[in-house]
Write a structure and sequence with these properties.
72 residues, alpha+beta, 19% helix, 46% strand, DUF2922, DUF2922 domain-containing protein
Length: 72
């Protein structure tokens, strides 16, 4: 199972923008995560098609299962 840490932000247009981090360390350090996300917003280092990141929306661990189907 592949896990991803998904950081969610709101941009200038009010739309959700996501940054995905593969294979996050678990359990997630929420204090460090809050600091990092605040730094991303305050330093304005990322830009989306809907404008700058203006606030944090949330974060979550996404788990994905992939099962190959054998074709005959």
């Amino acid at each position: 199972m592949a896990k991803t840490l998904e950081l969610q932000f709101l941009n200038t247009e009010g739309k959700t923008v996501k940054i995905n981090i593969d294979s996050p360390i678990e359990p997630v350090d929420t204090a460090a995560l809050n600091t990092v996300m605040d730094t991303i917003v305050s330093t304005n280092i990322f830009f989306s098609t809907g404008g700058d990141f203006v606030s944090k929306k949330g974060a979550r661990i996404v788990e994905r299962n992939v099962e190959d189907v054998v074709l005959s």
